[in-house]
User: What shape does this take?
Amino acid sequence: MIQVQDLVKSYGSFRAVDGVSLDVAPGQIHGFLGPNGAGKTTAIRMIAGLLKPDAGRITINGHDLAKNPVEAKRGLGFIPDRPFIYEKLTAGEFLRFHAGLYGIDGDGLGERVAEMLGLFELGRWEGELVESFSHGMKQRLVMCAAFLHRPRAVLVDEPMVGLDPRGARLIKQVFKEMSRKGVAILMSTHTLEVAQEMCDRISIILRGKIIARGTVDELVALAGGADEQLTPVFLKLTGGTGLQEIEDVV
Amino acid sequence: MSSEAAPAQAFPYLLRPVFWAARNRARRRDPGDRARAALFGTIGIAVAVAIFAIVFWLTWQLLDYEELGDYLIRLGLSWLFLTFLSFLAFSGIVTALSTFFLSEDMRLLMAAPIAARRLFYSRFARTVGQSSWMVVAFLVPALLAVGMARCAGAGYYATIAFVLVPFVIIPVALGCAVTLLLVNIFPARRARDILMIMGLMFAAALVLLLRFLRPERLLNVQTLPDVTAFFATLQSPVMPLLPSFWAGETLFAGLQGGLDRFHFSALWTTALASAVLLRVAFGRFYFTGWTKAQEARKARFTRLEFLERLAHRLPLRTEAASLLVKDTKVFLRDTTQWSQLLLLVALTLVYVYNFSVLDLERIPYLSRTLKNLYAFVNLAMAGFVLSAVAVRFIFPAVSAEGGAFWVVRTSPVSMKAFLWSKFWTGLVPLVVLAECLTVGSNHFLGVAPFLNVVTATAVFFMTFALVGMAAGMGARYPRFNAESMTQVAGSYGGIAFMVAAVLFTLVEIVLVSWPSSVYLWYDYRRAPLPSRLWLPMVLAFGAAIATSLVVFWTSMKQGVQALEEMG
Assistant: This one.
């Protein structure tokens, strides 16, 4: 599970994340929504241990990330928004390297790597260098790595970027299955349809602060709209549609 | 605002981003940019002044020989241009690969409504500029020195400008044509790798060849060839059909106050014809080559499976073994990285070979003292060589993780384990190199056994300190977005490391040389070492070891701390 309390991060005088608190229970998919520059990626990167918070506390599977980072990260999987990977390794080598970082070694590793590559439809690319992969293939390889060590909590930053419809459907199924097995998933996304379809709870962040939280139904009620879709609710909560301006400019 | 009515901008418009980017870089300085600019600026000016002074002195000396002097200057100018002709052609090949085929902005430009001719001329101008600035920076002080030593008129200085422009255009155009051909045969990235290896092998072969010719024999008058044979050798490569000859002849005429219209015209007509013919060739074959350059290649590479087997047999934790395998594979598969080892091996061979041919026996009374003195010079040289290798290969080790560093940072591997893995990966090959350099060259020198032990021990601890310092400072000053590892080595942190490494080496030499020289002094006289000297000598040796350990330990500690606080 993932617990975040009063997380703060500033860049100079700009406060990117301002007192964010979250609680993602085992088996829950928690959506993290917000407009560009709202602070989603900064918050996710702090929870992943990539950024040092100015204040606040992050706990992953009961381990404090600041006090015991190694144990906290052992049960965590992370999928970044941009899939930078070592270009000079093959897909198989990258996954074996990743497994090694989590202390996984031995006879079963080859099978596990093949299993993950098969799941994400990269089986025939196992022996190819990552530098010849497309963006979507790299994204799927990163997901293989994130799930390889059977994490109990997963952080996902914009999971659908660069994926084709088949890949997107596959990812949704994988996340649902992981959630069913008790994995806590925190997912930041711009794709409201994905959030609406997959998330048990949603937090909306604006200018570094959580401005609304709840199930889709609760958010619709909070926005006071009759529409059951998340898009108008999101636009209303985060500051209008901007459609009039578009008409003037275009 | 209508795009139909707007006339197309001339091709220099497409060069604006280059100038704007340079201007923005100059405005937005990173920490230490000013110090780096001052350091490199001073080095650049010093090199230019040195070239000017040497060429001025040589030309001045030749004034005494009238016709022979004129002949040698004429020959010298042709030689000078000939030397740079092949360099410019090779540089043109490599630069054209990036400017025409691999540059990121080409996708934007290819998708924009830009006439192929404009695009070609803008890229060609950029290629000429990028591949020739270094040659021009070298030639200008040399040619100015010739003019000033011979009191040439203003016409000579104008001729320099009018000769250099067509002189650089011709070989670079040839280089671009070769690139066009290569890219139509191989994928662009594969062609770059092939060229990189060829270039470095050529450089390594040149270093070895020049050294094994034993130029020191020229100092021995008995082995000098007769004058006729000497001039015959000098004249043989001056070919009148090459642009280098035309440039030399035109400048020589300018030096005497005239204008060699024939060779001047030959230069310009050939340069313009090369540019036009190249444009026609690019019009015909460029798009096919560029398309091939975009295709994802099925890369051929070595699997290096033995590395995994070897790493798992070592007494290492799984995490450390994984990092070791990854780092080694990435290093060996990156042509730009490992190919530089060829040059390093060549330089090391030359370094050790130098000691094997040193003829110290010619001065028998001093030979023993000189040999032992050389052992310390050798230790200092080994320190500097290690620093240079460390700044190129170990300092950038953390930065080499690049955008993929998140993989390690989000994994349950502490930054301490990560940096120590980088340290050990760098330490082992550097200890081997350091010991080969010192023990090998001491063997050829025939230094005293005591000194052999002292220098071998000293360089062992020095390597620990230098590798620790490089890894630690590389972690404190990382450049994850650098385009190449050479760029990381030349960054503020890299220069700071070099300064610190040189200072450290000097301190070590002082601490080790004093007790060693005292010991050798008494040993030479076959006198017992006074007991009052034992303690200060042991303290000096101890201080040398302690300094190495403190430098190594604090650097690593600070590096780990910097990585942990990153964010």
